[in-house]
Amino acid sequence: MITESRTLTRAEADAFGRELDALRAEVRADLGQRDVDHIRAVIRTAHRAEAAGRLLLHLGAGPVSFVLGSGALGVAKILDNMEIGHNLMHGQYDWTRDPALDAGYEWDNACDGGDWRHSHNFEHHTFTNILGQDRDIGYAFLRVSAEQPWEPRHLTQPITAALLALNFQWGVATHDLRVDELGRTQTWAELRERARPFLRKAGWQLAKDYVVFPALALGNAPRVIAGNLLANLTRNLWTFAVIFCGHFPEGVRVFHPEEVVDESRGQWYLRQLAGSANIEGGPLLHVMTGHLSHQIEHHLFPDLPASRYPELAPRVREICARYGQRYNTGGFARQLGSVAGKLLRYALPGGKRQPRVAPAPAPAAPVEVTPALARAA
Amino acid sequence: MQPNLLRIVSRRLFLDRQAAFWLDELDPTGAVHDRGARVEEVIVETPDTRTFVLQPPRRWSGHRAGQHLTVEVEIDGVRHTRCYSISSAPHDPRLAITVKRVPGGRVSGWLHDHVRPGGRLRLGAAAGDFGLGDVAPGAPLLLLAGGSGVTPLMSILRDLAARDAVRDVVLVVHARRHDDVIFGRELEALAARHAGLRLCVRLDDAADGDGGFDEDRLARLVPDFAARTTLLCGPAGLMARVEAMWARAGATARLRREAFGAPPVVTPPPGAPVAVRLSREARTIAAAGPGTLLEQLERAGARPPSGCRIGICHTCKCRKRSGVVENLRTGAISSDPDEDIQLCISRARSDLELAL
């Protein structure tokens, strides 16, 4: 197994990129009935789980139906947020032209879909793991890499990370508000404007789970409130665990802005690979993570239907091996343990810095056809 | 509660999509909700043309003779929309579209091969200005058809016949050979029943060599053509020649036309200026010069939303109403109507209309 990726020349990186482009083109050409059958089956399961959960909570009595109902509702929310919401919102199914599978999907989550598409699809997937540009590195308040300068507030990060895990949807929902930039690059007036979609979405979500559905349950209202809270909590913990395993386990690289100056498409692919990590497991784990267990394939091909990642993975791995690139993968426990270890270690100053990679020289003449990566100046 | 407010609440609480899902799940026959038009009958008109007789969908608001509608089908997971002329008369409780199989055509071929009685088709509302409109009743008419161009004219003729308003109508139908004449027997029956209808079938393979379309032949056949309100529908070549002939006769004002089928694909070299119609802004701009469609639009002063500019974030996704684009990542060239494209990895290969 390769533990340290070889530094590729720009020509090598571009050859690597061409192989991945060919892989992508092959899957694109093969998309069809089985992909829509898959996502519709997941949507059907999510709807059924939600109905079952709500019926058990609303009409049931006693602890068994409470646990089953909350669990079913939690599963429905996980499927809705991960395999359905996250993937539809990436435009993975836009090729179907089915309005129900459009990237404009709104998920059952406090985060506004428009905010998400901006902070995640655009910022995170374009500037993945670039310090100062990708706000998903530690979500701008956790220190997950020695490259991030230590500050005293990081001492409490084991606790703040645990609080984030419990309230993860609120962390995601407020992520694009950039509260940390207040007084520096953002004024209060700008924040008020920026917060509008969040406040609207959050209000409706709170009303749905804690006012409307409990009211419909009449005498069972307290039970429904508790069940919805438990379902949201379940989803929060699960999505936190999955997402933290995507970019923060040991061996994942971050990049300094000067390392990615004038980056080519092939080098963009390399950065996506070096900045991501997979979780090994079976089909059930993959669906429940929205196939983010294949974070590497997702970052290489964010707009291919995620259910294709498992069959792409061995081929991606083979290409990586040929180019001497590390393919970061491991079991859930190992990756999660690694993340927890880093959250503890980097609460303290220092840590092992990663070797710097000098920017590769640009080719003499830019290639016209391939859209170059336009980066914020 | 106002219906509008109700709609917002149901959307915000996701009750709308849950209701749609459970209706689909629990009502597979469409007893209480709209699942599209039911196919009642499939009529083989010619070796390559079929009529699909439909029970109109629940909320069908009718059509005028000569109009067309859109049919949406899902083929191998992808939805496709195409326009087809309605061949039934407006009063007919059953709706009919007549579809010629286009060689290599995805949707027409699929309709022919897969649609059987009992199936369902999703229809859009009737649209189009083609038809008699405000023409005075009894005014002399010339209906001029080439191939499957007879379909909207059939709706008009059936409408006139049903209202017993066939006064002075000449119908000239062009076809390659006898077997290709769509509605042949019904047209003959109509001509026999209505003294006001003169039917001229022109076959390309006529034994006397006096068949296919020719300006002189048409003028001999219908000497007063310029005085008649003319409704024309047929292939692009035929239509262009007829339009020129009517222009020479100073009769353009009396010529009404319905184009069908895909216009010939024009692919100017990359960077050649094309006209891009922005339908929401109701203006047309010229896109030219190097780079992607997004860059061209920005240079021309448009400000479509955009993000990564490398084709991954889909922020610049936009509905292309019509035209031909090239996908720069895959090299694929696509002329499908009503298709979503990513502006940052697309290049125009014809004039376009975008929903911007």
Describe this structure in words.
The complex is a heterodimer of chains A (377) and B (356). A two-stranded parallel sheet of chain A has the order 1-2. Chain A is built from 13 helices and 2 strands; from the N terminus they run αααααααααβαααβα. Chain A is mainly α and 377 residues long. Chain A has a domain at 10-30 and 118-345. Helix content of chain A is 56%, strand content 2%. In chain A, 45% of the residues are buried. In chain A, helix 8 crosses helix 13. The longest helix of chain A is centred in the middle third of the chain and has 29 residues, at 188-216. Chain B is built from 8 helices and 19 strands. Chain B folds into 4 domains: 1-33, no CATH class; 36-123, Translation factors (Elongation Factor Tu (Ef-tu), domain 3), CATH 2.40.30.10; 141-259, Nucleotide-binding domain of ferredoxin-NADP reductase (FNR) module (Rossmann fold, 3-Layer(aba) Sandwich); 274-354, Beta-grasp domain (Ubiquitin-like (UB roll), Roll). With 356 residues, chain B is of the alpha/beta class. Chain B starts with a helix and ends with a strand. Helices cover 23% and strands 29% of the residues of chain B. Chain B has a 6-stranded antiparallel sheet with strand order 4-3-6-1-2-5, covered by helices on one side. Chain B has a 5-stranded parallel sheet with strand order 9-8-7-10-11, with helices on both faces. The radius of gyration of chain B is 23 Å and the shape is globular. The interface between A and B is large, with 47 and 35 residues.
Short description:
Chain A has 377 residues and is an all-alpha fold. Chain A is built from 13 helices and two strands. The C terminus of chain A is likely disordered.
Lay out the secondary structure.
The complex is a heterodimer of chains A (377) and B (356).
Chain A: H1 10-30, H2 33-59, H3 63-89, H4 113-126, H5 157-166, H6 168-175, H7 188-216, H8 221-247, H9 265-274, E1 278-280, H10 283-288, H11 295-300, H12 309-322, E2 329-331, H13 332-345
Parallel strand pairs in A: 1-2
Helix pairs in contact in A: 1-9, 1-12, 2-3, 3-8, 7-8, 8-13
Chain B: H1 3-12, H2 15-26, E1 37-46, E2 49-55, E3 68-75, E4 78-85, E5 95-100, H3 106-114, E6 120-123, E7 141-146, H4 150-162, E8 169-175, H5 184-193, E9 197-203, H6 215-221, E10 229-234, H7 236-248, E11 255-259, E12 274-278, E13 283-287, H8 293-299, E14 317-322, E15 325-327, E16 333-334, E17 339-342, E18 346-348, E19 352-354
Parallel strand pairs in B: 7-8, 7-10, 8-9, 10-11, 12-19
Antiparallel strand pairs in B: 1-2, 1-6, 2-5, 3-4, 3-6, 12-13, 14-17, 14-19, 15-16, 15-18
